[in-house]
Amino acid sequence: MPKTLLQIDWLTILIVIILISFGWVNIYSTTFVNPDESIFDISKIYGKQLLWIILGVVIAIIVLALESKFFERFASIIYIVATLSLIGLFIFGKTIAGQTAWYSFGPFSIQPAEFVKTAVALALSKYISEINNDLSKFVSQLKAFAIIGIPLALIMLQPDAGSALIYLAFIIPLYREGLPQAYLSVGFLSVAIFMITLKFGFGIFAPVFVAILIMIYLFNRKRKPRFWIYFLTLLFSLGFSYSVNFILNSVLLPHQKDRFDVIIGETNDIRGSAFNLYQSEVAIGSGGWLGKGWLKGSQTQGRFVPEQHTDYIFSTVGEEWGFLGTSAVVILFTILILRLFHLAERQKSQFSRVYGYSVLSVIFVHFFVNIAMVIGLFPTVGIPLPFFSYGGSGLWGFLILVLVFLKLDAKRKSLD
User: Fold this and answer.
1) In this structure, is residue 230 part of a structural domain?
2) Entry pTM
3) Across all residues in the chain, what is the average pLDDT?
4) Is residue 306 part of a domain?
């Protein structure tokens, strides 16, 4: 066995294998009809997923067989090819549910956006490592944002807001490498303003925010705060809050607006826009501590939860495996993310470190948003649970994303 394979972090691979296996068990539960049917029947969803998993093993072998230098040397070419694959969708792509996001090959479809994440992570890592921590300069920031923004814009045009949202995760590795904190502050402030204005309206938000800002300014007077920072914060916040109505009614699609209304409690139409969330919450809540048992969930077996084998797969865990099962899944993802953080921090190469942070950020955002969406803390945006939800493109995309990093880490250890 090659030395670098001996240096692979097998704990991470073990966690991934457990997640994939448990994911398939739950996909089977959400889609089987006749227990006597073969699990290898690719006309069934669980059969297709099993095929994806088997082919995923082949992909894993190929990725681990490549030299670690390959990924850094060809990062730019990989990024260009990946971007072209997104552009090609507008000519050769297949439209499903209003989104032109797939290439169709007979009964199978491939979603390039799932693979572009790896390409963006590689390109971003190469760019940052070449400029040697120069993200304090505005020009360098713009170039880094362009690497992220080009595929993000192409995905938005499909339109696929869910997949596009994930690309915001790349702000985390940029922040780790020196991006000013102001960007994160503006991002969190914007989300807070949007949700508060949705719930209470501009008329309530504006005076309360002005009062809070004045109090903060007066409290910090002895430290001689910069007045212009407070003034710009005020202008941005009030302007953005005032525009929320326009965004809601003129930018978001009707179904997207409905999902926000559900989250802030403006609608409780369990037969309409709130149907998915209501059925998901019923499924999770009915599982109790230990669950109803595999293949015994009434919500799952009755097919009450839409898209349960993809975006809402966590509700199956809640119903059939209970609090114990959902806790196990959350703990596994937490261990995986912390492990990736540990591996990223010990990298000696900046390229490998940035890539490692990109991997853990993408997985964390997928995990956090999916769970929050299923339990009603976040609008439904079509984001799968990594290694768990149904889909060949998603499974392969996450495998490649993680295995490339493990290959880079193995190279680091082989040089110690």
Assistant:
1) yes
2) 0.88
3) 85
4) yes
